[in-house]
Amino acid sequence: MQHKTSAWPLAGAYALLIVYASLYPFSGWRNQEIPPWEFLFAGWPKYWTVFDLVANVIGYVPLGFLLALSFMRRGNVRYFATHPNLASIAVALVAGTALSFVMEAVQTFLPSRVASNVDFGLNVSGTLIGAITATGLELGGAIDRWSRFRERWFIPHARGALVLLALWPFALLFPAAVPLGLGQVLERLETAVAEWLEETPFLEWMPLREVELQPLVPAAELLCVGLGAFIPCLLGYTILRSARHRAVFAVVAVALGASVTALSAALSWGPQHAWAWLSMPVRVGLLFGLVLAMLMLAVPRRGCAAVLLLVLVIHLAVLNQAPASAYFTVTLQEWEQGRFIRFHGLAQWLGWLWPYAVLVYVLLRVSRREAPPTIPA
């Protein structure tokens, strides 16, 4: 029997993360006139760190876990009835091995990356560890308990929202001009379009900004933070079954958003600055977002979806009147020169695009008729 599972789209999203992390910065391609599989026969790399070794293992563990889990939960194991769990491990291992091999081979053409058989072996090991972990949890009944929990808490067609909610903390990792302010793209979009149209007659069609963007006043910052905390709560409300579940989810979501923002600040500016962003407008904004979430506990799911659309539009409109963070350049340099080079760009893109993905998802949700779900026994 096939199950609706979020593991498959999450596995696809994580595979894209690996591609981005492996090939960033996607520039300087050159042909060294050596076979792309030559790295398999190279010796131990000259330069390496313990962090690199651990990162290459850990980086592929979620991929192996999600691939094996999606294979099991979608019912594909029925084609391998003799040893279904071994089949799940094998499929995940083959897919992870193929992806790692392709990434290492393509790195042969990038001057800033070095293809390595050690990295390849560690990636394969990470995939295997993740796949074994997934099958172990399946045998131990943990996956079934999650399935029962999901059936009690969420409506059947919750996969898209669950994937977006799972990506939300990662989108918060890259520092933003306003805490919890995702989707701030207007200023950079204008600059990018102007650069593309440079030396063309179409540049004159671009609207000229008469004044530079100014930092948000405290009231506007409070509104942005509050709506930024309110948005994931509303997204969860569109798939949660009861008001009690909504109340628990809202508290957890706001606490998680604050915690991840603190982690982002600690990674960017040091642990001593982890809570430096928590000014009075931000604290009131977090409380404001939580109060709004509590006021919406009894609103039907389609009503929550409609309010979510309105809140998204207001949040993006106000947020995009703020300039990029004054610390953006310094932060970007720190991330690029440090250990975050493989992930800073992806976190940044998630922070830019996540609200717009939610906007598209909710528009699709409200545009189709939804049958009332049954409460499981």
Automatic annotation (TrEMBL):
The chain crosses the membrane at residues 7-27, 47-72, 84-102, 122-140, 161-182, 216-240, 247-269, 275-299, 306-326, 346-364. This is VanZ family protein. InterPro entries: VanZ-like (IPR006976). The keyword Transmembrane helix applies. The keyword Transmembrane applies. Pfam families: VanZ (PF04892). Keywords: Membrane, Transmembrane, Transmembrane helix. Residues 21-134 form the VanZ-like domain. It comes from Ramlibacter pallidus.
